[in-house]
Design goal:
four-stranded antiparallel sheet, about 30% strand, single chain, tt1808, chain A, alpha+beta, globular, six-stranded mixed sheet, about 25% helix
């Protein structure tokens, strides 16, 4: 993942928000950070997850947005692969309220250390559920009090809702392409 060279001046939030990036970048205290994405399995999983949530809007009471900017702090913007929001919330151009679920799909270049740090930021912001899907290892993780934990049941759920994503079905579908 590339970041802005150290010798370059920091950019303002306003400049970040008005600049069009080839693929959306994140912003951290004046530094623009590129995201790892764009590979086949990453893109396909992202599309499949958005489709699953959009097909269940009436049953689950939520909807999904791919690559939606989220403002965690005044000078920190992050772009989850999929943000899942409850129906009925006020619409925002850039999210300033925590989504119900933040989903990250790991790329081959991603490391657990980075994904864990990002998950800590989501939790500090108030995101209730964080799911991390690793298409290379064919596993999923969810945030627990002790950090990211392997989802051994193979089911990603949200307690108190009907939300259910079966990880093995995701990967089986992925393998059809």
């Amino acid at each position: 993942m590339a970041t802005q060279p150290i010798a370059e001046p920091l950019i303002s939030v306003e400049e970040y928000l008005r600049t069009v990036y080839e693929s959306d970048c994140e912003y951290n205290e004046g530094v623009v950070e590129e995201r790892n994405l764009g590979e086949f399995e990453h893109s396909l999983l992202q599309g499949m997850l958005v489709t699953i949530f959009m097909n269940q809007i009436s049953q689950w009471g939520v909807f999904a947005l791919p690559e939606q900017r989220v403002q965690l702090r005044p000078r920190r913007f992050i772009v989850p692969d999929v943000a899942v929001l409850r129906m009925g919330l006020p619409r925002e151009r850039i999210l300033t309220r925590p989504p119900l679920i933040a989903i990250e799909i790991m790329s081959p270049e991603d490391r657990m250390k980075k994904v864990t740090a990002q998950s800590l930021e989501y939790r500090a912001f108030g995101v209730e559920h964080i799911w991390v899907i690793d298409p290379q290892k064919r596993v999923a993780y969810r945030w627990a009090e002790s950090g990211l934990e392997l989802e051994a049941s193979g089911e990603l759920t949200v307690p108190g809702t009907a939300i259910l994503v079966r990880v093995d079905e995701l990967f089986a579908r992925l393998d059809q392409f």
